[in-house]
Amino acid sequence: MDALEVLAEPARRRIVDALLTREASVGDLVGLLGMSQPAVSKHLRVLREAGLVTARAQAQQRIYRLEPGPFRELDAWLTPYRKLWNRHLDALEKHLDSSPTTPDPLLSGSDSSLLPHEGES
């Protein structure tokens, strides 16, 4: 399986998210994610086979960490899509900047006509 197929599984993305800031053991991940140990181990095996994580032995535990290579490949694959969205967002920003702006009384809170008058509730 390639990285996109592997990361399509929400539980694996949660594991990757957890490993983003620090290395962790299976037990750490079980506690962080509230998943069963067999489920975490199964997903880690798939992530390891895809090259997204590696493990090192530390006493009786295996400590998992992310491998940057596959994420660089994903980033390179996403680059043209990111450029496409940036162009669209830039065009939207330009359109909004060139549109005449009328203050919205509901947002500014300065229009007293919206407040109830004496005797109204």
Give a verbal description of the structure:
The chain is mainly alpha-helical. The protein has 6 helices and 3 strands. The chain has helices at residues 3-7, 10-19, 26-33, 37-49, 68-98, 105-108, and strands at residues 24-25, 53-58, 61-66. Strands 1-3-2 form a 3-stranded antiparallel sheet. Helix 3 crosses helix 4. The radius of gyration is 25 Å and the shape is elongated. The protein starts with a helix and ends in a 13-residue tail after the last helix. The model has no long low-confidence stretch (mean pLDDT 87).
Which key phrases capture this entry?
121 residues; mainly alpha; three-stranded antiparallel β-sheet; 12% strand
Alpha-carbon Rg, integer: 25 Å
User: Number of helix segments?
Assistant: 6
For the report, how would you describe the main beta sheet? Answer: 3 strands, antiparallel
Strand order of the largest sheet: 1-3-2
**Secondary-structure element string:** HHEHHEEHH
Low-confidence region ranges: none
Would you report the number of β strands? Answer: 3
Give the helix proportion (percent range): 55-70%
Globally, the shape reads elongated
Provide the β-strand percentage band.
Answer: 5-15%
Chain-averaged pLDDT: 87
- Structural class assignment: mainly alpha
Distance between the termini: 64 Å
